[in-house]
């Protein structure tokens, strides 16, 4: 039995609490019991059930913790919380869905959550919630570590909190609280997207899903751009408009570029248009094969160009879930191969991605001028407008709280204001995007929990607290409201504004607590108070007392009591006092000032009024008071009190009519007359008591008094007063509690009115009436008053009358037993009479019926039973078969049960017919019934009782019959006539079963359980290989006798009667459980399988399958396309498909589906199903074996030489076959481009262009299927031989090859006049539409002339980095070699830009001439990127070869590195996550790689990690953000940065978290700073010796110093070591070793001297430290619990039942051992029998561990055992008893304290051994190092100790008496 935590009987509350606290100091929870309950998914959930005591402790902790934690849990957390339920959670979901518009629910389940809770994290979260009582945390930790008991084993859990514990749900909510708030921070407040109707898909009447109709707007503009919805597809050329229109799957009529008005569209969507205006386009378009055709109307508008519908025009940092940019966005517009988008700024055009927007706070609307800029020519085209609407917000809300100036406090106390009326506070928030729905104002009322005023869930709290606020008034970006406190009259409250919170739509937050910090009071209520008497009144209901009581009470007001008075209202001579109105009207002089004592708790004032001198009067007391705020007066009064000191008057006299007779006996009622009176407080009660001198017979009986105060007492002549000397006492009590009592000899009396008592009954027998042997009659005769003088008995039979003759009566002896002989009274009705007479002459005559018995019978013959099956009318049916004693029938049966028994003693209730139906005992039911009641034939002893039973078909029966008569005689078994069995089965039901096909490839997995009708035949099961017929057969009442099957090849269901008997095959695979799986022969055939089943009763069943076709062959496919001469198609290609499915057997499964896929260069362009068989075949004729289909291959979608056709046919058996064919399609006409290498000519001489150099024309034909013979070129030269096309070559194409280019050249090397023309066709006959001369000058007619100038350039500085970056200035020298030199024809083009801005570009100075050589210089001094080129044409028009474009960068500026947000060497312990930014700015930054590393402590070791930052490109460099640094450790930052010119940074700017900036010198790659993050504080661990000490827990001594290790990212500034809550002294008790290394974490060792633990007892060690980050750490909270017990003393025990006498063992058989260990824990007990040599002979009892402790708990600490006989009878010590006890406290070698003692008969004295060398876990019975102590020496030592103890006691008594005498003398003085 579990020991109680403490005994709580008759303890005061304070004492009870103290004892509970003492017990909890070392509280150790018991093991929890593991049980399992089923989960909804079929698995089991483990529960841990604590003991009743542990549940009580957990409930106590729950009641303390739950209110603390509830205030900090999330409001939307509903699980395991008081006053919350899943129904409320569901209701909230409905609200969010229906009111707020949410339409998604995320269901998350944490797998095995309760079983994997981290204990350390749980304790940390308790600490973070403010629960910092370390004793409580230790108790919770022990509960989590409580052992789990399962299947006799105990395990210590390392994680988890047991489901089933009272505290577990709360602990689970504490663990998940952090997750709840994190989810809130991530998703709360995200705007809701409600789907538009166009996004909602609906189900049509045919059950298919349809997407909504599209209302698209198509805009066709002069710039040839087409808009579809909001998506723009730019088109450069009008003849390429089809590329855009293809998005709608329409075609453009070639050569037309405008839309015709009011054009009706054909289904193919071809359209044209012209002019401007709006047209309606109606098309019918099938989306794909999954959706049916749908009609939609489109509107096409021709209008001016507008860019405002472009998507993704802005990019930037936009807060997720909002529409606000928190950084200035940048413009991002699309571009193509020909042009980019530009924005006009003033007079210049700026590329869109370089255009900087300058937004304002709030809504921004800008209209930009947008155009397209050609990438090659720079031409500006398609000028239009772009309207930007966006929101921009970078500032957090600004909150101001201002009290109303008119609200003045009534007074101020201790800097706290008190108001007598309402107080108002103005609330103002300034923000351009305030989300007023997120605004919070947190207040605290009456020092209770804080709550948000604006939270709708707190509406009732606002009403209760008297708080109101006005609606927000919005003026631009200013929001204002007013909150009013103290709106409820007659109430008083303390208010405090904790702070205000606001968040805008850009997710900026502001918390304001600066405006109002002090609490204030609003007091609109008069003072409250209590008043009463300071003594317990005798009668509080009637307000009466024996003495006056002082009046006491208290006054309370939140603003304090200003003044108070009292008035004592005494009664006058008539006993009347003033009423309330009279007292309130009294003059102020009648009131006396009331002295108040202010309580230290709140505004309470105690008082006391002395009225104790009042006597024998009545009075009450009034108090009135005013507070400091509103001045209202409150009145309080006591009830009227009567003071009465005089007892009541009382007289009692006997009524003479009820006097006793002459012998002093009363036989009638006795009456007394009572009179009582009290003039002041009145008579409250009169009571009387009757007692016999020792006890009260009647107590506290009330006497009713009439108006005159007189009453009557009547004592009835009842049994309770018979034969006793009695006395009457009467007591009167007034309302003041005073009493008067009357009693004495005159009130004594006696009574006797009772006859003797007689009891008579048989000792046994049924109903004490039926016997089968001699009968003993037990009698008793007594008289409790005068005594019995005579007792006799008489026996009568067969209802004879009792005789009055005294001679017929027999004397009853002292035993009271009457023996009735069975032989004398066999089968007779017998009765017994007894007659008794008492001393007073009262006579009693009684028989058996008087005592509840009745006359009885004696009978000995047993009943005989016979069972007969069948009747003459219904003979028993034939038995079909008999198996193992069970008979099988097919017809109902009747059984007749006959019992022969004397009719006097037949007992139908004990004649039992037991029938087992199907193995279960069953009363009458549908299965069987009793056909009649018991029918008697014959009379007397020859009577026979019969009953018929009817057994119905459908069950197995087991019949048994038994009988016992009324006298207890039992039958000798029953006999069945005809040698038939009592076990039989009646079965008329056919056996049941089911069959199926195993191995199907197609068809339903059907199970058949009956014979199918012919009209249900079908073929819907197919297989591609052999199949089995499988299933299960059974019979409900018997067994299966035989099972056969037949496989039919008929294409129909046949009659089973037509199956020949020889064709049935035995089902060889049938198992005992009725299952089977039999292979059948049916390859490339159709079949139906029939099964025949016969049971033991001869019933037969048939089952059949439906049709099956087994087809092992695949279908055959032919793919046919038209022939073409060239092998290339130029239009759509018709394809014919022929598929067949046939087998040699003539039976095939038929074609299931035919599918095709057309791929163009690996991409699917067309696919579909040509044929699908989706019906159920009624027979083989319905299967489709031949299919012919066709489809067209779209030339437009498959325009390539790699068109692949795949056709797949699948038969119903699931076998698929695929045929592949390849074709070529070419619908693209060739294109021709002719370009010239020389396009420089002087055209100022008429219509002829003159070239001063030879020309080469390059002819490019773009064509996939090219043939050079189909190229026709016409070249003419006026004077000489014309050149020809030569050197054809091919440049590889991509995609479908349509961009394959074939190149040839024409060389014009001689001076002449030339003309040129060309035409081209491809192999498929497509002709080129024209020639593209690629902007060539005079491509078809020109003249050649010769000689050109030469230009060159040289630089003085050619030391470049990264190709063209220089970190020093450059000078270029330009040389032109030309005979006819002219500086005016020099064209210098140059740009210079630095960081996107133009700078001044250098220019030529003067030219120097040296013959035909002319030179000048350009100086590049400033930092910039220079791009320049030079062109020159001589006077004759010969143009020098253009100088190659010169592009390079001069950069002499070093990169700048800036760090923002962190201070070097800082200690960071903020509650949030730390972040900082490092950026490098340089116009030409090449690389920037800051490296942040952190040294952390993981898995008991230090690890250095590299932190990856978020890299962000900025306008002139890069920024790296290190966000959410939350891991404790020492961080180091290094950096490499260099620009493309090779400049490295030399300084770094550091801006700390406070905004202060310093500049420090830093080298490339050097360390920039160190800092630390320290939120978790210290980590503690133990050395090996200490870990072993804690693990052992029970030790004899602490052999080594205790070492606690601590590591911390920061320096530890202070430390305290406590043992059992008491701080140790550093340097004496413990030392601190700093073992830190040069950098990184700080490491310490706390070495506690083992001398601290020298004494026995329990020790708990806690190390408390504080680090530089001001974080306080406790080793036990950090999950390092250091607890152990030092126990040096061996266990003791008490042994009873084993005694010693003169050193000889005399013993006893039973003995009790009571072991105990006061200092530690009992470990092992062993009781053995040993011989003379002390070697073990036999183990009597051995226990150890927790099993032993549980046993002792359940048996009150006792171990009971029997002393063996060999010990009791031993001689000369050959068998002795040895007792061993060991504890759990180990020494350094693992041995424990032990005591051992031997008892037995021996010439030597008994030995007692104390040992400490037993290993704690050893069960060995060997005795080692036994030291024998002589008993005599023990006695001497004991005597000495006793003598010393007596002397000590005498000394203590002497000094105590001396002290008492001194105290007495002092008291007398």
Task: Give an account of the 3D structure.
With 1869 residues, the protein is mainly β. It is built from 13 helices and 135 strands. Strands 20, 21, 23, 24, 28, 29 and 30 form a seven-stranded mixed beta sheet that branches. Strand 26 (473-475) and strand 27 (478-485) form a beta hairpin. Helix 4 (119-128) packs across helix 6 (168-187). The chain starts with 12 loop residues before the first helix and ends with a helix. Mean pLDDT is 81; it is low at 1-9, 195-304 and 1803-1834.
* Gyration radius over CA: 58 Å
How many E-type strands?
135
Low-confidence stretches are 1-9, 195-304, 1803-1834
Strand fraction band? 35-45%
Shape: extended
Structural class: mainly beta
Largest sheet: 7 strands, mixed
Q: Whole-Å distance between the termini?
A: 58 Å
Average pLDDT figure: 81
Helical stretch tally:
13
Helix share bin? under 10%
List keywords for this structure.
single chain, 1869 residues, mainly beta, 7-stranded mixed β-sheet, 6-stranded mixed β-sheet
At a glance:
This protein has 13 helices and 135 strands.
Q: Secondary structure elements and their pairing?
A:
Blueprint: H1 13-25, E1 32-38, E2 44-49, H2 52-70, H3 86-98, H4 119-128, H5 134-144, E3 148-150, E4 153-155, H6 168-187, E5 202-203, E6 209-210, E7 217-220, E8 226-228, E9 231-233, H7 241-245, E10 277-285, E11 294-302, E12 314-315, E13 324-325, E14 330-331, E15 339-345, E16 348-351, E17 362-374, E18 380-392, E19 398-403, E20 411-413, E21 416-419, E22 423-430, E23 440-445, E24 450-452, H8 459-465, E25 467-469, E26 473-475, E27 478-485, E28 492-503, E29 509-512, E30 520-523, E31 528-533, E32 544-545, E33 551-556, E34 561-570, H9 580-584, E35 592-593, E36 597-598, E37 604-609, E38 617-627, E39 633-637, E40 641-643, E41 649-654, E42 665-666, E43 670-677, E44 683-691, E45 696-702, E46 710-715, E47 726-734, E48 739-751, E49 757-762, E50 770-771, E51 775-782, E52 788-797, E53 810-811, E54 817-820, E55 830-838, E56 843-847, E57 857-858, E58 864-869, E59 881-883, E60 886-889, E61 893-900, E62 912-917, E63 920-921, E64 928-930, E65 935-937, E66 944-951, E67 955-962, E68 974-976, E69 983-986, E70 992-998, E71 1019-1023, ...
Parallel strand pairs: 1-3, 7-11, 13-18, 21-30, 32-40, 42-48, 50-57, 58-68, 60-69, 71-78, 86-94, 88-95, 97-104, 105-113, 106-115, 117-125
Antiparallel strand pairs: 1-2, 3-4, 5-6, 7-8, 8-9, 10-11, 12-14, 15-16, 15-17, 17-18, 19-22, 20-21, 22-27, 23-24, 23-28, 25-27, 26-27, 28-29, 28-30, 31-33, 33-37, 34-35, 34-38, 36-37, 38-39, 38-40, 41-43, 43-46, 44-45, 44-47, 47-48, 49-51, 51-54, 52-53, 52-55, 55-56, 58-61, 59-60, 61-66, 62-63, ...
